[in-house]
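Lab notes, practical 5.
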Amino acid sequence: MTGLRIRRLVWDGLIALSGAFAFFAITVALALAHGGATLTVTPAEVAPGGIVTVKGDGVAAGETFTISLQGPQLNLILGTVYVTQETFEQGFAVPTNVPADVYQVRAVGEDGDTLTAELTVSAGAVAAQQPESTVPTAELMQLDRSKPPLQLVVIAGAVVLSVALGIWLLRPRRQPEKRD
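Output from the prediction step:
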């Protein structure tokens, strides 16, 4: 075998391997996008002093979550939940001093996994019909932008695949030698 044929076989193998990796990466990305854990809060609107039920589905058994109520000017821990199976459900009282507004109920696990759901705290029956608007502030809102490790691996693999494919596409083509 000539050196040119060997290089050609190596590149063909790399392309086939890259295609298989791309298929795997797309499959994993779709699974991560649709199969994650969820958090629900019922009722979605409550008066201060009311009880809400926080339910988490698709979470790891044996994990402990800290449940908190967060808003533009409030960060209040409501309690903790221990997961016995792949779900949890527990009631929490909204303190009477919580101002009417739209809040995030956050469940943060020991390993940093964060689930969120929206909760409206209303001042009473009038506020239930028409929620109060939030007051804009100059304070920055903290957003959790952490990613699961598998998602980071898939992204890094896609970058490596793109670079390798780009280098392969930009390589100079050799003209076949003419034989007389």
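Observations recorded by the TA: The chain has two domains: 3-33+151-170, 36-141. Residues 3-33+151-170 form one domain.
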